[in-house]
Amino acid sequence: MAKRMLLLLLAFPASVSASQDFYVRHVVDYKFDTAGRSTVVNHISLTNKIANYYADRYEMELVGENPQHISGRDAAGPLKITATTPAPNTTRLVTRFNTPVTGLDKTLNFTIQYQGRTAVRKGQVWEVTLPKFSNSSALDDYSLNLIVPPTFGQPAYLSPPPASSAGHSYVFTKDQLTQGIGVSGAFGNFQTLSFRLKYRLENSSVIPLPADSAYQKIFFDSITPPPDSVTIDPDGNWLASFTAGDITVTGQAHILIDPLTTFADAPPEKYLSPTAYWPSTDPQIINLAKSLKTPRKIYDYVVQNVNYEYSAERKGALTALSSGKGVCTEFTDLFIAIARAAGIPAREVNGYGYTTDPGMQTPIHSWPQYWDSARRIWVSVDPTWGKTSGGVDYFSKLDFNHLAFITRGLSDSQPSVTTTDIQVSYTSYRDFPALPVTAKWQPPLILIPYIPVFFKLHLTNPNSQALYNNPVTLPPYGSTTLTTQFTLTQPFDFTPRSVSLLNMPYNIPATLFLPWQLGFAILISLTIISGGIYFQKLLRNRHLRR
Predict the structure, then answer these.
(1) Domain identity same for 183 and 199
(2) Are residues 195 and 181 located together in one domain of the fold?
(3) β-pairing, 3-11 with 53-63?
(4) CB burial of residue 502 (10 Å; 0-12, 13-18, 19+)
(5) 145, 382, 384, 473: which one has the fewest Cβ atoms less than 10 Å from its Cβ?
C-alpha cells in the first residue's frame, strides 16, 4: 500500500523542508502590467522518486507577500487552495491535488497564481522589489522570471544582475536567489527630484549650491534673494556669495544611473593625498590597501567590517577601523583612505539619500567616489547602504535616490553643507529652455600703433542652469571676464578690423582710431607750422646781415 506524504514547501523567505522522495522543480513568473500590477504564476513540477510514497497536497508559505485572487490548476482542472495567516506578514497556501502523485517517476505539473507586489512609480522611474528566497534545500530546481512591459523602459539597475535576459524578461537562477537577498531594480532613463533648501546666514558668507556632475543635472526655480556672485571651486562645487539673512533655494535635479563620460571633471591626480579623516599613509591603512587593492574588494571589506551605529560626531577612517562601527561618514572615510593608499584616487560626496527607511533618514548623507582609470570616469558607490539594505549591491550601480550637494576631495571638511532644512521629493519632468549667454565687450580707450592693447569680454549666464561653452563653463547666474590682445601694426590702413573670443567677433569701431589720427594730424600740423616759422626767422636773419 502506498503511503501518503504531505509535501511542505516554505518559500520567501521562511525556513523550508521538502521530502527527499520527490524531485521538485519550481519556476516563478513575476509579470507586471503597465499600471505596475503584478501577476505571479508558480509553475511547479513534482516527480515521485519512490514507488510507495505519494503526495495529495502541497503547502507553500509566502513571507513578505500578500497574495490576492489566488487560483490553481493542473491537467485535470482547477485546484482547491486554502489560504491562512499563521504569522504576521505570512500567508500559507495549501493546494490539494485532483489526482495524487503516485508511482515511481510519475510527475504532476500544476500552477498556483495570484496577484503579488506592485511596482512603485517614483517620478520617472518604476521600482520593483521581489521577495527573498532563503533555503535552497527545499527545491531541486528553482528560477524566477521578472517580466515588465516595454513602457517601463530599460533597467537602470537590477540586483543581483540577471543570469540572462530576452526583450523585457529577466531570468534569475537558484544560486542567485539563495543568498538571502531578493530581486530589486529600477527601470527608466533618469529620475527627477525637486528640492527646497533653506539657509540662515548671520554674516556675509559663501554657501555651496547643488551642482552639476556626471550623475546629475541641476535646474534652479528660484534663489531668494539672488546671489551676489556664483563661482566654481577646484572640486567643481558652485559657491554662491550672499549677504546676511535667510536664503531659500528651490529647483529640480535630473538624476542619472550611469555617469556621463563627456562631463569635464577634476583631474584625478589631485585626490591621492592623506588628510586627517583620510589617513592613507597610516600603516594599518597601507597594510589593508596592499591586500585589497581594487575598489570592489575595498567596498566589500568596508561593508563586511563596519556596522552602522548612529553618532552625531564624525570620527574618521581610523576610528571606523578600530571600532568597527559608525555612520555614513565612517563608511565613506574608510573607503577613501584605503583607496588612496592603494593608489586609487577617491573623494567624498555629501548630499541627500532619499529613503523611506526611518532608521536611515538623516539630513545629510555621505558616499564615496573612486576614479575608474579604464573608463576615465568617477564612479559613485555607497557602502553604507550596501550594509543597511540587506545585501543590495550599491557598488555595481548606484540608484536614483542620491542627490549630491557638494564634492570634497582636496579637503576632507570643506566646503560644508550649512543647511539641515531640506525637502526632497519625486516630481514630474519639466523642460528648462536655456537662454544664450549675455556678452559685453569692453574695448580700450585708444589704439596706438605698435603698442599692445587689451579687449575685455564680460560673459554672464542669465539661466538657472549651467552653460558649457568650451573652454568656458558658467554656473547658474555666474559671470567671467576674458581678455584678448591686439596690436595695430598698420597705422595708416583704415580698413575695418575685428578681434574674437570663443568665436565671438568684435568689430573695432573707427572711433578708437580717431585719437591717434587726430593726434598725428596735429603733430604734423605743428611740425609744419614750427618749421615754417623757423625758416621765416632764418630768412629774416640773413636779410638783416646784408
Answers:
(1) no
(2) no
(3) parallel
(4) middle
(5) 473
In a domain, 429, yes or no: no
Residue ranges making up the domain that contains 233: 191-254
Report the candidate in 419, 403, 395, 459 with the shortest Cα–Cα distance to residue 217: 403
Of the candidates 88, 170, 410, 432, the residue with the CA atom closest to the CA atom of residue 274 = 410
* Same domain? 229 vs 290: no
366 and 411 inside one domain: yes
Using one digit for the tens of pLDDT, what is the confidence trace for 384-410?
999 988 778 899 888 888 999 999 999
% of residues, the chain, pLDDT over 70: 87
Query: Do residues 291 and 354 both lie within one domain?
Result: yes
Average pLDDT, the chain: 85
User: How much is the pLDDT for 189?
Assistant: 82
Per DSSP, the residues of 161-206 read PPSEEETTEEEEEHHHHSSS---EEEESS-EEEEEEEEEEESSSEE
Last-in-domain residue among 384, 419, 454? 419
For 170-194, the pLDDT digits (tens) are: 999 888 876 656 788 889 888 999 9
Residues 74, 219: one domain?
no
Assess whether pLDDT exceeds 50 at residue 435.
yes
Tell me the C-alpha to C-alpha distance, in Å, between residue 398 and each of 80, 258, 360, 412. 44, 8, 16, 22
Is 403 part of a structural domain of the chain? yes
Residue whose entry in the numeric block shows the C-alpha cell 576631495 = 409
What's the longest Cα–Cα distance across the chain?
Answer: 166
Q: Which long-range contacts (CB under 8 A, 24 or more apart) does 24-27 make?
A: 24/138, 24/139, 24/140, 24/141, 25/139, 25/140, 25/141, 25/142, 26/139, 26/141, 26/142, 26/143, 27/142, 27/143, 27/144, 27/145
Q: Which of 375-379, 441-445, 529-533 has the lowest mean pLDDT?
A: 529-533
CA distance 40 to 93: 14
Is the sign of the CA dihedral 445, 450, 451, 456 positive or negative? positive
CA 298/CA 214 separation, integer angstroms: 23
Contact 141, 24 (CB under 8 A): yes
The residue count of the chain comes to: 546
Task: Report how far residue 493's alpha carbon sits from residue 133's, in angstroms, rounded to the nearest whole number.
Answer: 86
Assess contact for 18 and 137: CB atoms under 8 A: yes
Burial of 274 (0-12, 13-18, 19+ CB in 10 A): middle
Grid cell, residue 33, equals 502590467
State the DSSP code for 386: H
Number of domains in the chain: 4
Q: Which amino acid is at 135?
A: N
Predicted confidence (pLDDT) at residue 527 exceeds the cutoff of 80: no
Beta-strand runs (E) in 75-119: 77-78, 80-87, 90-101, 107-115
- Checking if the pLDDT of 53 tops 70, the result is yes
Residue 486: closest CA among 512, 460, 511 = 512
